[in-house]
Each structure stands twice: as structure tokens, then as C-alpha cells.
Design brief:
The chain has 213 residues and is mainly alpha-helical. It is built from eight helices and no strands. This is Transporter. It comes from Candidatus Butyricicoccus avistercoris.
């Protein structure tokens, strides 16, 4: 059930006291059981509840003074249409920013990884094999993590699969060019930048539509 909450904010539950954590988990279970809500609406309601709980914890307010109602009444409050709409817009804006930032990191880190691949093929390293390999592995790990963040968000909103295919085709093309090219001065970086701008140009209107809903 907890997978339906906005996953990027799950770590915030660690800041809750045991009493508020039990309350929030109870609220979350109830929200996730409402079949009339979409996954995004459930995430919005859960995030609003989490925000309220965190605010109460930071102000050292007892649970009963903040939420004197029954669990059922609290769930109704957290799933009000106006509340969901405001939180959905907030999460949507955050997601758009995360997609753009992740895409920029992908361009930067993949460029470093492809640079190492070229050095591996030619046998000419910037410093030495082990240090270059370490930098390449770190860059690859960061690129993969940002790829996961980017496409997790795209999947959350059921956007076009073209973005996934575009990333895969771009990476495969860059690797192929690196294999057949003997120089670091090729078009792989340009291809990564073009892929970024194509994604940004096409995904921005989709997020704008989501923000207006």
C-alpha cells in the first residue's frame, strides 16, 4: 500500500514520533483503501496528512489536540477535493522540477561515463585506469539513479513511453559512436544535449496540462 504514496517523501516519516507514525500509517491505510481515488489523489492526500503530522511534531503538539476527530473524519478532511487539488499542483510542480534536474544530471554523468569508455577503448587514461574507472563507476551510478527518478515520475503521470525509448536509443547510439570513434571529440555530448531539450520541450506541455486539472 505504501508504494502509492509519493515515494520521494517516504523518508520524512522517520521524523514522526511513534504516536504520530502509528496515526499516519492508519490514515495511509485508509486512504489507500478508497477505490474512488486515483493513485495520484491518494498520494496527494497522504502527503497532506504527512505534512500536517510533521508540523504538529515540530511544534510539540499532542496528537489529540491536533486531530481530535476519529480516523474516518480525518480521512475525509485529508481527501477533500480542494485539499487534493492544491497538493496535486504542488507535487506536480515538484515532479516537473525533478524531471528537468534529473535530465541535466543524466547528460553530465553519462558524458563522464562515455569519456571513460573512450579511454578504456584507446588505452589512454586521464590519470590512470583505477582512478578513471572509479570516476566512471560513480558517474554511471549517479546517471542510473537519476534515470530511475525521471522515469518513475513519468510513469506516475502515465506520460508517453517515447521518453524512455529516447533515452535508451540515445545511450546506445552514443556507446556505438564511442566504440567506432578514436577521439573524445565526437557528437555524443551533442546527442545527449539534444535528447534533453527534446524531452524538455515535449514534457513541459504535459505537465502544464496536469497543473490545470
Amino acid at each position: 500500500m505504501k508504494k502509492q504514496i509519493y515515494i520521494d517523501n517516504l523518508y520524512l516519516t522517520k521524523k514522526l514520533t511513534p504516536e504520530y507514525k502509528d496515526f499516519f500509517n492508519n490514515i495511509l491505510d485508509n486512504i489507500c483503501s478508497i477505490n474512488s481515488l486515483t493513485d495520484l489523489e491518494k498520494s496527494s492526500a497522504a502527503n497532506y496528512a504527512l505534512e500536517q503530522c510533521l508540523e504538529a511534531v515540530n511544534e510539540n503538539k499532542p496528537l489529540k489536540t491536533v486531530f481530535p476527530e476519529s480516523i474516518k473524519e480525518c480521512v475525509k478532511k485529508f481527501t477533500k477535493k480542494s485539499t487534493l487539488q492544491a497538493m496535486k499542483k504542488k507535487l506536480c510542480q515538484q515532479d516537473y522540477e525533478k524531471v528537468i534536474i534529473s535530465s541535466i544530471w543524466i547528460v553530465f554523468t553519462l558524458s563522464m561515463l562515455l569519456f571513460f569508455l573512450n579511454n578504456l577503448i584507446t588505452g589512454k587514461y586521464l590519470i590512470n585506469y583505477w582512478l578513471d574507472a572509479l570516476i566512471g563507476c560513480v558517474a554511471g551510478a549517479i546517471a542510473f539513479q537519476n534515470y530511475r527518478i525521471k522515469h518513475r515520475i513519468i510513469k506516475r503521470y502515465n506520460f508517453k513511453k517515447i521518453y524512455k525509448y529516447l533515452d535508451i536509443v540515445t545511450v546506445l547510439t552514443c556507446v556505438f559512436i564511442k566504440i567506432i570513434s578514436k577521439s573524445n571529440f565526437d557528437i555524443t555530448y551533442l546527442l545527449l544535449v539534444i535528447s534533453f531539450f527534446v524531452t524538455k520541450k515535449n514534457i513541459t506541455p504535459e505537465f502544464e496540462v496536469m497543473l490545470k486539472k
